Amino acid sequence: MPLSSANKRALSEENKGEPALTSKRSRTESKNRELDEPESCATMTEPQKKANFSALSGNGISRHASPLANAKPGAAKKLVIKNFKEKPQIPENFEEQTWLKLAEAVGAIQRSCAIRYSLEELYQAVENMCSYKMAAGLYQQLQSACMKHVRANLQQFLGDTYDHEQFLKMMSNCWQAHCRQMIMIRSIFLFLDRTYVLQTSSILSIWDMGLDLFRTHIISHRTVEARTVDGLLNLIERERAGETVNRQLLKNLLRMLTDLQIYQEAFEKKFLEATERLYSAEGQRLMQERDVPEYLAHVDKRLNEENERLLHYLDSSTKKPLISCVEKQLLEQHLAQILQKGLTQLLDENRIADLTLMNQLFSRVKDGLKELCTAFSSYIKNTGRLIVVNPSNDAEKDKDMVQNLLDFKDKLDNIIEVCFAQNPKFVNAMKEAFENFINQRQNKPAELIAKYVDSKLRAGNKEATEEELEKLLDKIMVLFRFIHGKDVFEAFYKKDLAKRLLVGKSASVDAEKSMLSKLKQECGGGFTSKLEGMFKDMELSKDIVLAFKQHQQYLDASQAIDLTVNILTMGYWPTYPPCEVLLPSEMVYLQEVFKKFYLGKHSGRKLQWQPTLGHCVLKAEFNSFGVRKELQVSLFQTLCLLLFNENNEYTYQEIKTATGIEDSELRRTLQSLACGKARVLHKTPKGKDVEDGDKFQFNDEFKHKLYRIKINQIQMKETQEENTSTTERVFHDRQYQVDAAIVRIMKMRKTLTHNLLISELYNQLKFPVKPADLKKRIESLIDREYMERDKDNPNTYHYVA
Questions:
Q1: According to CATH, what is the number of the domain 442-523?
Q2: Residue 799: which H helix or E strand, with range?
Q3: Distance between CA atoms of residues 228 and 725, nearest Å
Q4: What is the DSSP string of 297-349?
Q5: How do residues 191-232 score in pLDDT, each as one tens digit?
Q6: Does the pLDDT of residue 183 top 80, yes or no?
Q7: Residue 92: strand pairing partners
Q8: Most confident region among 31-45, 405-419, 542-556, 682-696 by mean pLDDT
Q9: CB of 493 within 8 A of CB of 515?
């Protein structure tokens, strides 16, 4: 083959500067390679043949390249590629023969028989058909073969001889077989699936085509779909009734419906309707048959069962509507009935587990916790009202009221913490309910709380350690916060504190100061300023008594009587009515000595003795047994007992004349000495009450196991009188506060209508007050010319500057 001009140029460039011998050798070697080339082709491997075939199908390779191309060892070889003169031809019946082979394999798979050909051979056949642009026909033929097989399977489901479970098993087997067949078929036709099908958007993949055929020709058949769904619902209904069913069968078939994308349309809607009917009837029936704890346990059980179904075989998309349906039919429809029927019982019996379950279940439904919180608040109000309100004025009930309130509060705190997870709504509901019922009985709760504190802070109270007492005071302060009339508490607390301080009955100074600190933190310094002043008076009195004793030693005026005096600032302490009694001359002398001493140090002050607060320790000797005792008694008891140093018997009138004690006070005093547990005196005639004609003798045969004996004063009538006076004092103080509030408001507003003034007063006053009382105070201020009515409108007031 003659060289072209281009080849000549290449040759001349490649051989430039090379010896001629080299060129000659290159031509010889090239010629030899040409002769050896057929032998090389015969020994090629299979992949090389495919490569050569592919190359030859496009262009031919010239074997007559320039012999000078390889003149230089290692130089690049140049190949010239030319077209074949004729294209390779495929056999005329290639498509038909190949499809017959593939159709036979597909049929064998569908019949579950052995395939004559290897999978590699079948795969290669599909690839060859796709390479020769037969993919569209191949897809249609495959689709027709699969459709024919699926249609043939339909007939087995149209008979009426099967029960629900047999039908479902047959459907499950058919579906699983279909899935296995389509997986095998797709593996053979994978090249078709990944080329032609992938590039053609208008047709389905082989797997989706199989699903579509099954859905169209089997499961979407009206009879088959109905029997399948009915069978599934029947199995689930039996399981809900307590039977053991084949959950794997349910799982397979529901997975089938999901894969076929008809789960919601064919099954879920009917399933939810059946669920609603079941639980609606069940809820109505069980609410009548069972009590609330059993019903709540049943609802919890049903919810757990439905969650298990979701876990084992139902599709996850069903979870929200299914659980909502159960909650609505078993809970939401019966909220009011559950609360009305069982909440009071659960709270009364402190059923922690049941209340916890109720809270958990009610939190699942709309307005559940709101309804529960409202019912909880109503329960607290009703129960608390029974504790506080005492229409019959039963003294025993009032005695236990504060302790019952504390126990009730502890119980509710525990329920809120454990059962209601410290929900702020329930905490606030409890506070509002306590504030509501505890103030329905004015003044009395405040009084009783003050007395309860007194009983816990009084000496001799060994019920609790200091730590326990501190916790108890904190709980009492919680009740104290709910009280509107805190001034009533202050009045009674001050009266009781005065007794504890003056008679030395305080259990602990630290506990007293701790309580004072709590009150100050709660109500401010103005509330506790007088109480703090009482403590200061007691501390100053100790210094004064110590100085007085040193003064007595300086005067060398030692007395048989050891005098201790408490100097009380009148503004800090409760108001005590003046009382005159006839004291022994020794006591009168000591009073004068102390008065002279005190006024010498503090000129311009006035001392007023309060015998009702005095107490003494008497040394007594009972001659019959030669026994000596110490009697811890009040000053009034002391005056009565000292008379018996002169005579052995006195009449009531004689004692009254000798002591000067007021009649009712004297009767209580003699009653404590002659009718109590420690009877130092004998009364004739015997009886509990002291009459005008009674006679009293000294009990010379008195015996007692203790050396120092405390003889308490009879307190019943005294307490009633004290209560009345304390309440009246509080009322007067409130009048002054109301007057001050009215003047303060009018001074700021200048002009106000009656209704607006009343509204402002309710916002400012911290204690309960009636509109009629406010009207009286307004009239009083008008009379005293602090304000005046409008001339044209009597309901309008003007401030008078």
A1: 1.20.1310.10
A2: strand 796-799
A3: 88
A4: HHHHHHHHHHHHHHHHTS-GGGHHHHHHHHHHHHTGGGHHHHIIIIIHHHHHT
A5: 999 999 999 999 999 999 999 999 999 999 999 999 999 999
A6: yes
A7: none
A8: 405-419
A9: no
Over the stretch 431-462, which tens digit does the pLDDT of each residue have?
Answer: 999 999 998 888 889 889 999 999 888 866 66
Average pLDDT for 620-629:
74
Q: Could you please report the per-residue DSSP string of 133-162?
A: T-HHHHHHHHHHHHHHHHHHHHGGGS-S--
Whole-angstrom distance, CA of residue 584 vs CA of residue 639: 8
| DSSP bridge pairs for 709 | 631
The yes/no answer on whether domain 720-799 falls in CATH 1.20.1250.20 is no
Residue found under tokens 């897809």: 139
Other beta carbons within 10 angstroms of residue 553's beta carbon come to: 10
- Whole-angstrom Cα distance, residue 464 to residue 472? 9
User: What CATH code would you report for 225-330?
Assistant: 1.20.1310.10
With helix as H, strand as E and coil as C, how does 449-463 read?
A: HHHHHHHHHECCCCC
**516 residue type, one letter:** L
Span 140-161, pLDDT tens digits: 999 999 999 999 998 888 877 6
Beta bridge partners, 81, equal: 61
> Does residue 745 surpass a pLDDT of 80?
yes
CB 141 within 8 A of CB 103: yes
Residue 799: phi and psi, rounded to 5, are -80, 135
- What six digits make up the tokens of 363? 């939190």
Give the chain's largest Cα–Cα span.
Answer: 174
How is 249-269 classified by DSSP, letter by letter? HHHHHHHHHHHTT-IIIIIIH
Mean pLDDT of 524-543: 89
d(CA 250, CA 727): 78
User: What HEC string does 582-613 produce?
Assistant: CCCHHHHHHHHHHHHHHHHHCCCCCCCCCHHH
Q: Where are the domains of the chain?
A: 5-83, 94-220, 225-330, 335-441, 442-523, 538-611, 614-714, 720-799
161 vs 632: CA distance, rounded Å: 105
Summarised one tens digit per residue, pLDDT across range 301-321 is 999 999 999 999 999 999 999
Domain 614-714 belongs to what topology?
A: Ribosomal Protein S5; domain 2 (3.30.230)
Could you give the CA distance from residue 458 to residue 637 in angstroms, rounded to a whole number? Answer: 22
| Closest to 128 measured CA to CA, from 50, 209, 48 | 50
Amino acid code (one letter) for 396: E
Residues in the chain: 801
Which positions ≥6 away from 542 have C-beta within 8 Å? none
Query: What is the residue type of 787?
Result: M
- And the tokens for 345? 């019982």
Distances (CA, A) of 58 to 46, 49, 423: 19, 15, 83
- 335-441 has the same fold as 225-330: yes
Total Cβ atoms within 10 A of residue 541: 17
The CATH code belonging to domain 94-220 is 1.20.1310.10
3 state DSSP class of 174: helix
**Full 3-state SS string of 672-722:** HHHCCCCCCEEEECCCCCCCCCCEEEECCCCCCCCCEEECCCCCHHHHHHH
Ranking 40-54, 237-251, 574-588, 631-645 by mean pLDDT, the lowest is: 40-54
Residue-averaged pLDDT of the chain: 83
Structure token digits, residue 520: 């100050």
Q: Six-digit token pair at 543?
A: 């210094």
Tell whether the model's pLDDT for residue 17 goes beyond 60: no
Question: Which of these, 536, 530, 527, 443, lies nearest to 495 by C-alpha position?
Answer: 530
Using alpha carbons, select from 283, 277, 278 the residue that is nearest to residue 295: 283
- Is residue 30's pLDDT more than 60? no
Measured CA angle at 372 (ends 371, 377), to 5 deg: 100
Could you please state the CATH topology (level 3) that the domain comprising 335-441 is classified under.
5 helical Cullin repeat like (1.20.1310)
